[in-house]
Amino acid sequence: MIDPLSVFLLLLAAATPILFAALGELIVERAGVLNLGVEGMMITGALAGFAAAHATGNAFIGFAVAALAGAAISMLFALLTQFLLANQVASGLALTLFGLGLAALFGKPLEGIKAPPMPAGPLKVNWIVWLGLLMVPLVWWFLNRSRAGLILRGVGENHDAAHALGYDVRRVRIAAIAFGGAMAGIGGAFISIATVLQWTEGMTAGAGWIALAIVVFSNWTAPGVLAGAWLFGGVTVLQLRLQAAGVSVPVQLLSMAPYLATIIVLVAISAMQKFSRRAGGGAPGSLGRNFHALR
Amino acid sequence: MKRRTLLASAVAISAMSLALPAAAQDEPLKVGFIYVGPVGDGGWTYQHDQGRQAVEAEFGDRVETTFIESVPEGADAERAITQLALAGNKLIFTTSFGFMDATINVAQKFPDVKFEHATGYKRAENVSTYDARFYEGRAVMGTIAGRMTESNKIGYIGSFPIPEVIQGINSSYIHAKKVNPDVEMKVVWAYSWFDPAKEADAASALLAEGVDVILQHTDSTAPLAKAQEAGAIGFGQASDMSAFKPNPRVSSIIDNWAPYYIERVGAVLDGSWESKATWAGIGDGEVEIGEITDAVPAEVKAEAEALKDKIASGEYHPFTGPLNKADGSAWLAEGQTATDEELAGMNFFVEGITAEIPK
Q1: What pLDDT is stored for residue A1 in this prediction?
Q2: What string of DSSP letters covers B103-149?
Q3: Which of B242, B223, B208 is nearest to A195 (CA)?
Q4: Please, are residues B164 and B343 in contact by the beta-carbon 8 Å criterion?
Q5: Positive or negative: CA dihedral B259, B264, B268, B274
Q6: Which residue in the set A101, A195, A241 is minimally distant from B208, CB to CB?
Q7: Cα gap B142→B168, rounded to integer Å
Q8: Which class for B222: exposed (0-12), middle (13-18), buried (19 or more C-beta within 10 A)?
Q9: From CA B34, how far away is CA B78, in angstroms rounded?
Q10: What gap in Å lies between CA B35 and CA B42, rounded to an integer?
Q11: DSSP labels, B186-249
């Protein structure tokens, strides 16, 4: 009755915003930084991307501007946590609130305007969806096979050791935060430019928080992030799709499934520490701890 | 519960500081409005603010209006309403279902101030309620939907399974079925009044099921954007949504609160205001049908307009028997029409809709 291919294509699109945001946050956390400002960076990208796409008539320019805007606002968080050594949790929450408020303020004149059309990619699936899928092996390769990725992981695991080896912990972390901001920005812009085709206040509606949950679910690995994005995005799509097909399902049960899965995965991870480490995962040792070279 | 809310107590407080001029004897009547969303939402709150502006245009210097937007439906609402009352407003409109208890509470403390609550059912000496018969407009949309569908599948995005929304689904289905006996209705619940991304996904899910007409009881234009991509059609909700004309948006159901607001402000000005419950529809101009575009064939357009006129004149009621409930039990006999009490508590689908109402 339900065509699996159509469900899969819907799932690909529904998972894209959280996939981008979660891949970005994965890099940030592997560098040892916990940025809870994902939602704020996403909404900033959604607004800036939409404004640029509308002004130029080109959706792709919109995505580029969204990446820049996301990276720019993430620098506020970098300033607070890397230079002023502010608490990362509080700074991240502040970034979310700030982003939401700022976007609402500057978004007023854009209400009621339609996004420019976007050429469909292969299989009638948006190009950005394919870009998101491509980012998964790229991020995996970067973390596990590149020298820069090794340094980044070293900084995240033990920043004092990385510092002793002569690596600039702060610079690595700022670069990671900027990357995370850019990815969250693209994810947000996907909602305004490709999904809703309009700007509306508060339109990211919690996607950033789901992205944060997915990073934990993924055991801090890129393939795990993809699986998580599909699980969380897929449940939403499947739930709506089942309703449309007239199959009555307890919606609440389905909605809760990804969170249950996250808990189960976390339990499994801690039970199999060794295996998890060998698979290249696990929470970075310095996650959430500020680094100060003089200490 | 009525409308989705965002932050705003800070906005509310700063708005209030603007609304505290000193009282004078021959002052204009001060009228306050509490909105659940931003004025720029393009839907529900936007239409209420159009009504407020109509009041200003009608009465000029005799009135002075203030509004507070994006007021959450919780403790903040009571504070915002109290502020408006303290600021000297003698008539206060609270425009969302979730403001009901807050309105009653504040009204008890300010017996000299008159309150009007939209879509609620609790009244008092100084509290009136008002609502619109959206289901009348849905009958017209259903007629167009039934005629326009080629796949004979119509999709409906519901917000919450409450009587107001169920009335709309039933009314659309009954009238689509009247003009097209093969029509099927598919229902998806979004559990939100306003969540653009989710509404888009809901529309995609319906389109993947083969529907080619989408009706919605959620406020964003996201379903119209999805309909456009798929070559399907849809309708504007609460507001005209004219950005999507002439296709996919082929018509719309518009809430027009202006006549009511003008009447009620006028009643306070001439001293004839008293507490009552109002439930007005197409005939009173409170529910409007937006322009039916040329994407709709002329004869379908004429048929839809004829139905609209019959509802407006009171010649026809959208819920007229014979009608059975979805479980097969009899509801309305031949020629019998539903009472307002039945409509206000409607918790069942009519016969022919195979979807289930979530509990």
Answers
A1: 58
A2: HHHHHHH-TTSEEEEET----BTTEEEEEE-HHHHHHHHHHHHHHH-
A3: B223
A4: no
A5: positive
A6: A241
A7: 9
A8: buried
A9: 10
A10: 13
A11: EEEE-S-S--HHHHHHHHHHHHHTT--EEEE-SSSSHHHHHHHHHT-EEEEEES--GGGTTTTE
Interchain CB distance below 8 Å, A111 and B41: yes
DSSP A153-173: HHHHH-HHHHHHTT--HHHHH
**H/E stretch holding B91:** strand B91-94
Cβ distance of A201 and B6 shorter than 8 Å: yes
**Could you say which residues from 172 to 191 on chain A have a Cβ atom under 8 Å away from some Cβ of chain B?**
191
Instruction: Indicate if the alpha-carbon torsion angle B106, B111, B114, B117 is positive or negative.
Output: positive
Structure tokens at B152: 């004979």
The answer to whether A156 touches A32, Cβ cutoff 8 Å, is: yes
Residue whose entry in the numeric block shows the structure tokens 């499934």: A257
Q: What is the ipTM of this complex?
A: 0.77
At B38-80, the pLDDT tens digits run 776 677 888 999 999 999 999 999 999 999 988 887 778 999 9
The conformation of residue B290, written as its DSSP 8-state character, comes to: E
Residue matched to tokens 């939409």: A50
H-run or E-run covering A252 = helix A251-271
pTM score of the predicted model: 0.80
Q: Which of B45, B185, B188 to substitute to test the interface with A, most A CBs within 10 Å?
A: B188
